[in-house]
Amino acid sequence: MAVYTRVDAEDIEQFLTRYDAGSLVSAKGIAEGVENSNYLLETTTDRFILTLYEKRVNPDDLPFFLGLLDDLVVAGLPVPPAIRDREGRQIQQLAGKTACLIQFLPGVSISHPTPAQAAATGKALARMHLSTADYEPTRQNDMGRPDWHKLARDCGPEGLNAIHAGLAALVDSELEFLDEHWPQNLAISAIHADLFPDNVLMLGDEVTGLIDFYFSCTDFTAYDIAVTHAAWCFSDDGLTFDSRISDALLAGYEAIRVIPEKEREALPVLARGAALRFLLTRAYDWINTPPEAMVTRKDPMAFLNRLSFYQQHPDVFSA
Ligand SMILES: Nc1ncnc2c1ncn2[C@@H]1O[C@H](COP(=O)(O)OP(=O)(O)O)[C@@H](O)[C@H]1O
Ligand SMILES: N[C@@H](CCOP(=O)(O)O)C(=O)O
């Protein structure tokens, strides 16, 4: 459960007085998510998400994230903007943390997506990429390839090998491979960089929300396709690849934005990078999650299994 920071109902009531958002009816900690503390607020007028930003979100990056959300709303994408208070401020302080009141979006996160849902997500991602190509602010990807070396060092060989015998050596050799083969000169745009099924809200086959933009950054557009592919196209444990989901996701994407040949050729390496990125962040969290945190750690092995798949099947993105 991701509630790292507890906030009293009285403090939330007081917080809401800054907004034209009604008064508090109920506040519940949200179990899903691992990064930030989230509460679902019911007020006399509406529902909202109250987010308190934790360790991995630098408050200085919030203008990039919130500006991107505002632009995507204008472009007609189903994303949740941060609500402005009566003085026009989106970014606030609460319980010693930087916090935002976020628009609530309907829909549920899908645990086991169907091809139709994967196709709808591919389309939404491509629509997002067409819009974000023009987003002027930039933010370096701080979970990008150069940072994977530091993450691996921070996990340490003992930490990695305690998760899986020989993992430290596997990570080292993959880092070396990726340093050598990482593509150059692909199209760049603002990307989501974490579009897992739990960050897509759906009603039936319709995407009603793309959420959790707190890893969004400026990077290869195709890397976002690779991340989404790695997140969507496997069983939870990463052992079974679902080609129907993969085909649907890519076909949905290409119904809106054709993947240029150069990007398609780069996808096998980008997908290996995406798998390593989530393997490493999960491994880091596995080793370092404080015992008092009410959060369910995610299994790093699920992304080692995906990495092995991409290593063995470089043809998976061939048209
Ligand atoms: N704007 C929103 N509308 C509806 N539900 C939301 C919204 N934002 C977050 N949630 C809910 O909160 C959960 C955790 O949010 P998320 O942003 O993924 O957290 P974290 O950043 O901690 O991973 C989501 O899975 C979803 O159930
Ligand atoms: N999607 C990442 C972890 C980030 O969590 P999120 O709830 O913010 O998407 C993973 O699955 O490792």
The proportion of residues forming helix, as a percent range, comes to 40-55%
Number of helices: 9
| Strand content range | 15-25%
For the largest sheet, list the strands in their spatial order.
1-2-3-5-4
Give unreliable regions as ranges.
none
Task: Jot down its keywords.
three-stranded antiparallel β-sheet; Aminoglycoside 3'-phosphotransferase, Chain: A, domain 2; Phosphorylase Kinase, domain 1; binds the ligand N[C@@H](CCOP(=O)(O)O)C(=O)O; globular; 319 residues; 2 domains; alpha+beta; Pseudomonas-type_ThrB; five-stranded antiparallel β-sheet; EC 2.7.1.39; Kinase-like_dom_sf; threonine biosynthesis; binds adenosine-5'-diphosphate; 9 helices; Homoserine_kinase_II
What does this entry look like structurally?
By secondary structure, the protein is an alpha+beta fold. The chain folds into two domains: 9-104, Phosphorylase Kinase, domain 1, CATH 3.30.200; 109-317, Aminoglycoside 3'-phosphotransferase, Chain: A, domain 2, CATH 3.90.1200.10. The protein is 44% helix and 15% strand. It is built from nine helices and ten strands. It has helices spanning 9-16, 62-74, 115-132, 145-163, 167-181, 221-232, 243-256, 261-288, 301-312; strands at 24-29, 37-43, 47-52, 92-94, 97-103, 108-109, 188-191, 200-203, 206-210, 217-220. Helix 4 (145-163) packs across helix 8 (261-288) and helix 5 runs antiparallel to helix 8. It is globular, with a radius of gyration of 20 Å.
